[in-house]
Amino acid sequence: MITVVGTGTGAGAPVAADVLAGAELVVGGRRHLDAVTLPGTAERLVLGPLAPALDTVARYVAEERPVLVLASGDPGFFGIVRALAERFGPALLDVRPGVSSVAAAFARIGLPWDDAAVVSAHGRDLRTAVNVCRARPKVAVLTGPGAGPAELAAALPGDRVLVVASALGDPERERVERVTAAEAAVRDWGTAVSVVVCLDGSRALGPVRTVAGPGAGPSRWALEESAFAHRDSMISKFEVRAVALARLGPRPGDLVWDVGAGSGSVAVECARFGAAVVAVEKTADGVGRIRGNAAAHGVEVAVVHGEAPAALAGLDDPDAVFVGGGGRELPAVVAACARRARRTVVVALAALDRVPAARAALTGAGLSCDGVLLQSSRLAPLPGDVTRLAATNPVFLLWGERPRATVEGVVQ
């Protein structure tokens, strides 16, 4: 049996005397090992690179010798339990959790966290945590080297409040500080940070929840045009949006651009799926409509008032891009988006003449290109209790997808 004890965060979990006394191998961080009295016959293994440590554990398991693993907080929550279960099977584990750093941090600031998103940036790409913080009003980020409060804050909107919890559970060193993103970005936070809570102050408390987590995706999408304020029917029709959303694939952790956003209907729909969204719009009245539509649907959309492609220069690289509108600059806009998109670019075109140039811009950036002509007819009532079909204007939808890279046989 491998006994895994979570200790050292919040209230901790005491290490039972019989577990300590019987252990022949004790694995953990240096501070965890220093905090307990080990039997003289036990081998002490300071946890560093995981693979060699698991190999040592495997040797003891094969000889049916008891192993004790010490970890911070709840080792089943972004912790070592996953690696142990994958290597040795859950049936071999006796897990005794402590209080997770996330639970402890929210307890310190008096907020519930059943509606919070939790993201690990420890040993992972920080951009995922940044995009979740941009999109969600309450996020806990587990930090790591190069992915601490300063790096996180530097990429966030100025209205975000960060709660930085350091050395949780340590009666002498524990600190919980509430700072603005601007303040956090210029501080040296050291190495004791346990977790960062990112809050949109106006929505931090949130409604009563039945299902834990930041909320399920929308129950409906490709909403009717009447769900958005727009000018003179200048809005992507819901049939077009349905196919565009299917190709964009917006999800939590993604960054999506809506370029030539108009009413922002595509931007809002992507935000409803949990993606961070930037809408780029050249008209001042369009900027106001986008902000109003985002507020009406209770989502976060960052709006850039400017004309592409120049307005794209200062933005973070997106996972997916929707390009609407047209004009002489369209090929340059599509090319700029295609060069920077990590996954896909979707282009809506009303004019047949513009299709070849847009397609060439996608393929010229190394994307594989496909497309469809969307023609739909909607039911429309006529006098006398009869119905006719009313045709909408046809729209070409092109999409370019970046080839998926294969690394050591795993599709990324």
What does this protein look like?
It is a single chain. The chain is an alpha/beta fold and 412 residues long. It is built from 13 helices and 21 strands. The strands form 5 sheets. It has a 7-stranded mixed β-sheet with strand order 13-12-11-14-15-19-16, with helices on both faces. Helix 11 links the parallel strand 12 and strand 13. The protein is elongated and about 90 Å long.
Low-confidence runs: 406-412
Rg from Cα: 26 Å
| Main sheet record | 7 strands, mixed
Q: What would the average pLDDT be, to the nearest integer?
A: 91
Q: What descriptors fit this protein?
A:
alpha/beta, about 400 residues
Write the layout of secondary structure elements.
Layout: E1 2-6, H1 17-22, E2 25-28, H2 30-34, E3 43-46, H3 50-62, E4 67-71, H4 81-88, E5 93-96, H5 101-109, E6 117-120, H6 126-135, E7 138-142, H7 149-154, E8 160-166, E9 175-180, H8 181-185, E10 193-200, H9 238-248, E11 255-259, H10 265-272, E12 276-281, H11 284-296, E13 302-305, E14 320-323, H12 330-340, E15 344-349, H13 355-364, E16 368-374, E17 377-382, E18 386-391, E19 395-401, E20 406-407, E21 410-411
Parallel strand pairs: 1-4, 1-5, 2-3, 2-4, 6-7, 11-12, 11-14, 12-13, 14-15
Antiparallel strand pairs: 7-10, 8-9, 8-10, 15-19, 16-19, 17-18, 20-21
